[in-house]
Design goal:
Elements (H helix, E strand, L loop, with lengths): L1 E4 L6 E10 L8 E10 L2 H15 L11 H15 L2 H18 L9 H17 L5 H20 L25 H8 L5 H13 L3 H5 L6 E2 L4 E4 L8 E4 L2 H7 L23 H11 L7 H16 L2 H8 L4 H4 L7 H20 L4
């Protein structure tokens, strides 16, 4: 099915769709293309098209392949309902690059060579700006595949007969600041509320979104624990309330509602970027401290202290242990400790009597 604005006809849209037609002597139905003109808004035309697809598309034995651009409004509506707001915004922003190249194509038109052309074109464009873009391009390819999956799930297309090959990309290893540098940074945050937010990231490993959406009714002051409900992976988990955050929050506790409200808007904070940038400059830490870096700081030190990768995975809320394994590569302290133990062992063996 597809929707097309009728030229020179105000507020008129043409909807192309197929209807089943019985053919004498044949078990299989024939599908006949029909066109319908509607004088209405584009939104109403899409509602009509969606309702008709709901009624008939499930019975199609032959896949109807619309152009990718014609599926986008329905896909974005679905995405907004079923995915996080940040995911919706990220995907929508990436369509600026995806649709000019793939929008007027159907899924059967996609080939490995065409995807190679897209990767080369995007890489050249990003390189011209003096940036490295393999990660961005891979993300766009993931979004394209998500759109295709949506079409396949809704009987609008078949799966690609080939695997989409990604560009090489190695995730950079975070450089974890020394605890003294973190404390200097924390000392530059004067607002107690924002200090508590930062402490929950630094000493409990919470994500910024998890902190900003924290609710009073999910804090247990007797056990000194909290429950995260709105998490990235969708799985609730517990965390320990650090003492540095407890002394700030406990005196102001409420029976319910969001813990951290922006007094200017009455809503949860949306960003601490300005605060973190200013505190980083004043503390002269040598690098810009970001909310996620505080989370990395805690999880790295948790692994250093316990050596328990499974515990770190549960604390971080990672579904895949592979995500957690990045913390095994960023601990200089553990590397130094292991090196000392190895050299001590070698020296002991040197001094031992040969057999």
């Amino acid at each position: 099915m597809s929707i097309r604005k009728v030229k020179d006809a105000p507020e008129t849209y043409e909807i192309a769709y197929y209807i089943p037609v019985e053919v004498p002597g044949r078990k299989r139905k024939k599908w006949k293309l029909k066109r319908k003109w509607l004088q209405c808004s584009e939104a109403d035309a899409r509602v009509w098209e969606a309702e008709y697809r709901q009624q008939h598309i499930g019975n199609l034995r032959d896949i109807i392949n619309p152009k990718i651009i014609n599926v986008i409004p329905d896909y974005l509506a679905w995405l907004k309902l079923h995915r996080a707001e940040k995911t919706y915004k990220d995907y929508k922003a990436s369509l600026v690059f995806i649709l000019p190249f793939f929008g007027n194509l159907t899924v059967p038109h996609l080939t490995p060579s065409l995807l190679t052309q897209y990767k080369q074109q995007r890489a050249d464009s990003i390189r011209a700006k003096g940036k490295a873009g393999n990660r961005s391009i891979n993300k766009e390819l993931d979004i394209l595949q998500a759109i295709i999956k949506y079409m396949v799930d809704n009987n609008m297309a078949r799966k690609l007969p080939f695997k989409v090959e990604k560009l090489p990309y190695k995730r950079p290893i975070p450089q974890i600041p020394h605890p003294a540098e973190i404390e200097e940074f924390m000392g530059e945050i004067a607002d107690p509320t924002k200090q508590a937010m930062a402490r929950l990231m630094q000493l409990a490993g919470l994500r910024f979104k998890e902190v900003r959406l924290l609710r009073w009714e999910n804090l247990d002051w007797r056990k000194n624990t909290g429950m995260l409900v709105d998490t990235k992976g969708g799985t609730p988990r517990h965390f320990i309330i650090p003492e540095e955050a407890r002394v700030i929050l406990h005196p102001t506790r409420q029976p319910g509602g969001y813990v951290f409200l922006n007094l200017k808007t009455g809503n949860p904070y949306t960003s601490l970027k300005t605060l973190f940038n200013a505190a980083s400059r004043r503390a002269n830490t040598g690098q810009r401290i970001k909310p996620h870096l505080l989370r990395h700081f805690y999880l790295t030190n948790l692994l250093d202290a316990t050596g328990d990768l499974r515990l770190v995975q549960e604390t971080a809320g990672h579904k895949d242990i592979k995500t957690t394994q990045i913390y095994t590569h960023i601990s200089t302290a553990r590397l130094q400790d292991g090196h000392k133990k190895a050299t001590d062992y070698i020296n002991q063996r040197k001094q031992a009597t040969k057999p």
